[in-house]
Amino acid sequence: MNAITIFSPATVANVSCAFDVMGFAVENAGDRMIFRKTKEKGVRLRMKNFRELPVEPEKNVAGVVALAMLKKADPDFGISIEMEKGILPGSGMGSSGASAGGAAFGVNQLLGEPFDQNELIGFAMLGEALASGVAHADNVAPNLFGGFALVRSTHPLDVIPLPVPDGLSVSLIHPLIEVKTQNARNILKKSILLKDAVTQWGNVAALTAGLFTGDFELIARSMHDGIVEPVRSMLIPKFDELKQAALNAGALGCSISGSGPSVFALSADKETAEKVTRVMYEIYQNIDVPFETFTSGIASSGCRVIHS
Ligand code: HSE
User: Distance between CA atoms of 42 and 81, rounded to whole angstroms?
Assistant: First the structure.
């Protein structure tokens, strides 16, 4: 295999209550990346769009991942990566996670798949560390392997795949303003009250149980975040109205996608998700902020080869 094109899906991290420990992959939004073996050793990058992103490998989210993998595997060839971003940087839809996870997946393919799942997540986390200063795995784990992923621990890495209940669908609205993950992390409180932690871990555990049992009522009762959402939602125009409208339209829950500014809602079926997307669309139609919307299933697989 000398060249492959891959699709690297967008992801929704945090899933409301599960800050830094849960995420899921979105079926029909993502990046395309082309990987080619080169005679010259090392990593070369080319951006097909978003040309303002750095192409020096050590400054690029995909580049640092590829460099680390080539250093470990030491093949007698180099790799060039051509990136076409479908997920806007700073959107909260796992843009850096898609670059990092996609690089880990694509490079592993060209190397003949020497690395296992945990090692790929570990390499991809290097890209997240470059992007946000923190090597979180709640985007790269679902990006690489699809579905929902629960990150019990990053050191040592312990990622648990969670089932996707039939029909579960997502609505997303992306206000076209940039929120850098690092800034959205810096505004968070460094300590929280024990009573708030108790409420939060009750919800995370119940959300996990709801996904395993396909209990939509339980999923709806669990999607509450009293810690991160109240702080970060201040960065998102009309957040409270979006959320209320989504819930009124039948969504199970609604919160910030990753570190924002995108807002997501989960619904029990595609029809409801489409209705939820419409009501969110209508709210933004009346304000002066450009935006895009998506309705999607949850991707059962993560990064995948689409051409070789
Ligand atoms: N868990 C991370 C955060 C996700 O919320 O900062 C960033 O996409």
Answer: 11
What is the tens place of the pLDDT at every residue in 207-251? 999 999 999 999 999 999 999 999 999 999 999 999 999 999 999
Q: Using a 6 Å cutoff on CB, does residue 14 contact ligand 1?
A: yes
Domain spanning 3-163 has what CATH number?
3.30.230.10
Measure the CA–CA gap between 298 and 26, rounded to whole angstroms. Answer: 5
Which of the residues 27, 128, 154, 295 is marked catalytic?
A: 128
The domains of the chain are located at 3-163, 169-297
181 noted as active-site residue: yes
Active-site residue, 58 included:
no
- Backbone φ, ψ for residue 47 (5° rounding): -95, 125
Q: Which residues, including other chains, have CB under 8 Å from residue 281's CB and lie 6 or more apart?
A: 173, 291, 293
Rounded CA gap, 216 and 224, in Å? 14
- pTM for this prediction: 0.96
The protein residue with its alpha carbon nearest to ligand 1, atom 3, reads: 259
Q: CA 255 to CA 219: how far, in whole Å?
A: 13
Q: Give the separation between CA 6 and CA 35, rounded to whole angstroms.
A: 8
Of 11, 27, 154, 181, the active-site residue reads: 181
Atom of ligand 1 nearest to the CA of 94: 8
Whether residue 270 has its Cβ less than 6 Å from ligand 1: no
CATH superfamily membership of 169-297? GHMP kinase, C-terminal domain (3.30.70.890)
Question: Ligand 1 in contact with 181 (CB < 6 A)?
Answer: yes
Q: What is the pLDDT of residues 114-126, one digit of tens each?
A: 999 999 999 999 9
